[in-house]
Amino acid sequence: MSADAWVVWIVITPLLGALASFVIGGRVGPQIALVTAGGIVVSFVGLTRQLALHGPVRYAMGGWRAPLGIELYADGLSAVMLLMATIVGLGITLYSRGYFSGQHRDSAPIKTESAHAQEAFWPLWLFAWGALNALFLTGDIFNLYVTLELLTLCGVALIGLSRRRTASIAAFQYLLAALVGSLFYLLGVALIYSEYATLDCMSLSRIVEPTAASAWAMALMTLGLILKSALFPLHFWLPPAHGNAPAPVSSLLSALVVKASFYFTLRLWFTVFSNVSTPAAGSLLAVLGAAAVLYGSLQALRQRRLKMLVAYSTVAQVGYLFLGFALIGQPAIAAQAASGVVYYALSHASAKAAMFFAAGAVMRFAGHDHLDQLHGIGQHVPISIFAFGLAGMSLMGLPPSGGFVGKWLLLRAAIDAGQWWVVAVILTGGLLAAAYIFPLLNRSFAKAAEPFEKHPVPRVMEWMSLVLALVAVTLGLIATQPLELLEIGTPFSLPAGQEFAP
Amino acid sequence: MTAAALYALSGIALFGIGFHAVVVHAHRLRKVLAVNIMSSGVFLVLVALASRTPDAAPDPVPHAMVLTGVVVAVSATAVALSLVRRIYGEPGSDNRSENTRDTPP
Lengths: 502, 105
Known about the structure:
The complex is a heterodimer. By secondary structure, chain A is mostly helical. Chain A contains 18 helices and 2 strands. Chain A has a two-stranded antiparallel sheet with strand order 1-2. The longest helix of chain A is centred in the C-terminal third of the chain and has 36 residues. Chain A is globular. By secondary structure, chain B is mainly α. Chain B has one domain: Helix Hairpins (Orthogonal Bundle), CATH 1.10.287.3510. Chain B contains 4 helices and no strands. The longest helix of chain B is centred in the last third of the chain and has 29 residues. The radius of gyration of chain B is 19 Å and the shape is elongated. At the A-B interface, helix 5 and helix 6 of A face helix 1, helix 2 and helix 3 of B.
């Protein structure tokens, strides 16, 4: 292994950390996770530097080249996704130290999370992190299936940590939906392999022809992936799963896991199926996205529990990511729209993690998250509520925030393409986001109607929420660097001599 | 129709039957079985496509994919079954007390 094999280290480090925390276990889990997180940050910085200096990286695992071997591939798109996972992953690692700390002190007995949960959390979380990193670096459509399944199994086990019956039911539903999604994807992979006899994305992008078999494969794989991304109307499993998981797990699922399958949908449409995908198919995804924005926001307005509100907000925000598919007809505009949605994914990840962190702090303090009984909560967990507001700003798309930059790029692409309905959906979605975020802020500064249970909240839980909310806002101020990073290897340009099918 | 095509079509039929069952049945154990039938269908398609040219040796790559897929299916089934057991709080499971204590809010 050469010294600059950062793509490998960024995958192996969390896997080693997971194994170590599983074997050693017990109370050193948080320490192992912290060391692992440090290793991932170093590998990420190394990889980014390598990308900036030498362009896209291909790494043949074990010296076996594609098509026989499984290659890792990193370009600007992978790097931005890894950046997202690294920021949120660091946040989750630090937040969870506080979240699971209550068990060892007499002062704050936590009812729902047992000591078992806190020991099992660390290896599962590190395995999930490793699966995510591997997913963002895979250049092989079958390897993607494997990483998706690793991620699903970790996610399901993490939701199940809270052992309540509702959480188990949600975890089961999530597992089934994810498995069915993977099987649709795998059937598509089988079709592709039978036609073209390779699984490597880059090779496929050169040889895939717009035949009926390719179209079927694209439909099956896309269907499987959007089921995993919870795109309306396939979102039914998301709110219970994200709303009933422990707070750090909700953040992981909402901020990162739904983005994983979205990322690969984007990747597939721009590489493997660039010859097969049509503007009509893109518009279909975008219409579903638009429906998700409207339906998810309206449902969020109706929720009575804070975590369910944030979960439905994810349904809405996933819709934005798919809106960009309406604009794939013209190559120049397609690239801009894709950059916009990727930037939106990045800022939504930070903002959504901050919101679930804040919700977790509220829940820890008050012992519940019923919106009707949270009057005056702002006096007790002020930092969390402030963070919730800041993160909400990014979701609404107010400047200066990462959400604004993402929406702005998408908006400009939509105007250039003359797709006015996309413009209307983007703007309406922003207003609806304001409508579901302000009620909590209003209540938190109102006079308390009834006294809270007042459990102490570890400080790190409040601060991590603020840090991630600030990241979401800062992304609006330093948009140039991440966007330049995204350009490395031009992930959204079509292979030479190719255009999207008319 | 060649034998391979027949197997592939049977695989797709199994996939369809499993998908129908996972949507229609309410019982969780049936859903787990249905997902297993779906994955058997996909595996059958993969194995069938590996030997499309009758005289040549079968392509080993789809076989490797099936092996990986079987491992994934077994692990996922184990997780699903343990969740089902936890949801119904079977006698003999260590979660029964948890279930009665932590009733949903």
